[in-house]
Design brief:
Layout: H1 3-35, E1 40-43, E2 49-53, E3 62-67, E4 71-80, E5 83-89, E6 96-99, E7 103-104
Antiparallel strand pairs: 1-4, 1-7, 2-3, 4-5, 5-6
Length: 108
Amino acid sequence: MSKRRLYTLWLLTAIVAVALLAATITLAARARTYRILNSTVYLTSRELTVHLHQGPDGESPVVAALVRDSAVTVLDVSSGEGQIWYRVQKGEMTPGWVPADQVRLKRP
């Protein structure tokens, strides 16, 4: 086999391996995300409050604000703005959306 043909075969193998790795990581993240439905989680933020948005994006109007470390229930999951968002609710309050990076699974 020529060097050029070996290089092409190696390059194609590397591309397939990277694509499979990306697909595996995506599927693992989605499986974890959907296991969180109906679970109690805790809000986290650098600020004292966490804003709940009307929709799964940062430009959506704020429908409520909760104190950091509040316990909420996850009602739904969505992807928006290149990140995962959770629709959460505390008691009888209006539900709202928060980015996944503002949710913690364990009690603070």
